[in-house]
Amino acid sequence: xxxxxxxxxxxxxxxxxxxxxxxxxxxxxxxxxxxxxxxxxxxxxxxxxxxxxxxxxxxxxxxxxxxxxxxxxxxxxxxxxxxxxxxxxxxxxxxxxxxxxxxxxxxxxxxxxxxxxxxxxxxxxxxxxxxxxxxxxxxxxxxxxxxxxxxxxxxxxxxxxxxxxxxxxxxxxxxxxxxxxxxxxxxxxxxxxxxxxxxxxxxxxxxxxxxxxxxxxxxxxxxxxxxxxxxxxxxxxxxxxxxxxxxxxxxxxxxxxxxxxxxxxxxxxxxxxxxxxxxxxxxxxxxxxxxxxxxxxxxxxxxxxxxxxxxxxxxxxxxxxxxxxxxxxxxxxxxxxxxxxxxxxxxxxxxxxxxxxxxxxxxxxxxxxxxxxxxxxxxxxxxxxxxxxxxxxxxxxxxxxxxxxxxxxxxxxxxxxxxxxxxxxxxxxxxxxxxxxxxxxxxxxxxxxxxxxxxxxxxxxxxxxxxxxxxxxxxxxxxxxxxxxxxxxxxxxxxxxxxxxxxxxxxxxxxxxxxxxxxxxxxxxxxxxxxxxxxxxxxxxxxxxxxxxxxxxxxxxxxxxxxxxxxxxxxxxxxxxxxxxxxxxxxxxxxxxxxxxxxxxxxxxxxx
Length: 608
Fold this sequence. Notes:
Blueprint: E1 9-17, E2 22-31, E3 38-44, E4 48-57, H1 61-77, H2 83-99, E5 105-106, E6 108-114, E7 123-130, E8 134-138, H3 163-171, E9 176-179, E10 182-185, E11 195-196, E12 218-224, E13 229-233, H4 235-238, H5 244-257, H6 263-276, E14 283-290, E15 300-303, H7 313-325, H8 330-347, H9 353-363, H10 378-400, H11 413-422, H12 424-432, H13 437-442, E16 450-454, H14 457-466, E17 483-490, E18 495-500, E19 506-511, E20 515-517, E21 524-527, H15 530-539, E22 556-563, E23 568-573, E24 578-583, E25 587-589, H16 592-595
Antiparallel strand pairs: 1-2, 1-15, 2-14, 3-4, 4-5, 4-6, 5-11, 6-7, 7-12, 8-13, 9-10, 13-14, 16-17, 16-20, 17-18, 18-19, 21-22, 21-25, 22-23, 23-24
């Protein structure tokens, strides 16, 4: 999945829900991802409850929509009566989301719990799963109930290489490809069941379960006792070296640690441990205790993590978004974090690494807020808001706004472009899957980006200082003689914005005259009409028709590679976010209509 931020956002948004039948604790953490895409449902009634975790991918639209609509349906219609009703609800909400034509998809795992009619009786569980989030059942002694699912869970991960899932995918017109060691539906999606993901529901049918990716829940029924507890976790909890048995054991230990069990504290501990075990995904953990009562602590709580990359826009955005999950602004979150740092520092060993890190974090605020300002007061929050504004202004005045833009280790658009550019096969897989990367990465430009080399220091500095729209920054000296990628050209003042890969890792506007062009523009071609295209592809021994290719009819694209042996070209079509190998006979060189053109000389291995 990759590391999306320079530092993980380890702030935790917490919810606690008590009642007559259940006590629930929920914790969510952004982690290394650029944004939080998970959603959840806690719907606890006197005799039953619905609890769910929905793990989004490709955006948070689908997960948020499904969680909201499930809550609305439960409020208006009550608990679904049986498996058929649950399945019908899942299909109906999936269709609603698909009809809205929004991007993204989401897995979902949930459990409907019915309390016993008599004290001391068994609880009835209807467990449902769509994708690879999990439901676990723990016992008071810390052991896991040996469920029939993945890693002793109650649910089974729906992966494309699961024999039953592969058979359904292939039967409904899809295929399973292994990409970098991971089985994926149509070479794209790493789960075989999900809400949304419209691009994988175009073949098969007409029934909603008969598509390569389906929102059909796998349902099972169980019973448990009042001392047991339920855990619902997204796959971010499970993706590192953190097996289900260890997840349950840690939760049980934390539940016993306090006089009155706090499932939220246990859920927080699970999220932090998952990060330590190597997870790079969003993290969501819900713990449901059976039996009513109050849950100790605040109903909604925000526990701020280290603010370790203040100059990185992506980190700031993710940190702020997590604070908003608990109803706080970024300045309110930093005010809480500052107080927490001060408190932890007062208890830490002055010579410890923890104390050094806390001092470093506190030090970024200079002398800090005046001591007479009360913790949590509006005036103290305003001080941190002013610090944020001052920090942004300082960054811009140092040339980081109109000059260079450091990006830390964040997986920004430009870094993603560079990563894919250096790995043609990965790029081809991503683009051919319909992810829209061309639109994302080249900003709907007519021309492809180009590589350039910066002039020597003795030439660059005078040129920058002589330009009315530019200002010299000493860091630009490090870029002299280095190669970068042109992101934007401004012909009005003869400048270009260039991105430099790590270790420089910044963008800068420079005089175009100081840049040596290292790349030649790609050849532009136009695809023929659908009927001719389909006939030619089906007739070619090395190619296979895919309905997505119909979108290429009449579209213009950029030639990436040529295979002279079988007379095919690999072409990237930015307007429809698709890259494909096509017979050369189906393509017309646009330049040829004006001044003849030869096919490109470069050859490369075809992406499968």
